[in-house]
Design a protein that fits this description.
This protein has seven helices and eight strands, in the order E-H-E-H-H-H-E-H-E-E-E-E-H-E-H. The protein is an alpha+beta fold. It is globular.
Length: about 200
């Protein structure tokens, strides 16, 4: 699966170029935004909630997530009116990392408001990761897909861009296979995330 991402192929975009290209395609006539997330910890400076989490203010991080409710609800209302479906596969390792515990609380809100999220236990895909971990992938309709690039500080640094229709179609099918393997987000959150104590951030 995802062989086209393993060769280093694709047009390399800087972070600024990637964000601009993503925004342009996202605003176009697409019906699916599909995302695979594999890494267990990232840095998202500039996100008020992540900044609070990273400073050890867990209550503040949760409060700031909730403060985004109206903006996120408006985004998904607009997406629904456009016929755009947002699906995400989130691969999870255990024990859950502090970052992932924070991110799952972000996803709780997004799931409530319209994002279709399924959680995939990393142990279920061990046979797919014998040579390399799954890539961090975003597919936008039939137009373009990206393999997100992260720097040594685990911050987004750009992406590799793919536009070949055959590769996009194949990747979408592979995404749907992983999505079908995953567990519904609400059930996972209530069982695995809700009972956790506030994370310790080093």
């Amino acid at each position: 699966m995802f062989e086209c991402f393993r060769s280093g192929a694709g047009e390399i975009l800087t972070r600024a170029d990637y964000l601009a290209d993503f925004s342009r395609v996202h605003q176009g006539d697409i019906n699916l935004l599909a995302k695979i997330e594999r890494g267990q910890t990232f840095k998202e400076p500039g996100s008020p909630s992540w900044d609070a989490f990273a400073s050890g203010d867990w209550a503040g991080a949760l409060r700031l997530i909730e403060n985004e409710r109206d903006a996120i609800a408006a985004y998904f209302r607009d997406a629904s009116q456009r016929g755009l479906v947002f699906r995400r596969v989130r691969v999870v390792e255990f024990p859950v990392s502090p970052y992932l515990q924070w991110e799952m609380n972000v996803f709780r809100l997004r799931s409530e408001l319209g994002e279709e999220i399924r959680v995939l236990d990393a142990r279920k895909i061990s046979d797919l990761e014998r040579e390399a971990s799954l890539p961090e992938v975003i597919v936008l309709g039939h137009s373009v897909m990206y393999a997100v690039i992260y720097d040594d500080e685990l911050q987004g640094a750009g992406a590799r861009r793919f536009t070949d229709p055959g590769q996009i179609s194949r990747t979408t099918r592979e995404f749907e296979a992983l999505y079908a393997m995953g567990e519904g987000f609400p059930e996972f959150f209530e069982r695995e995330i809700a009972p956790l104590a506030p994370p310790t951030v080093r």
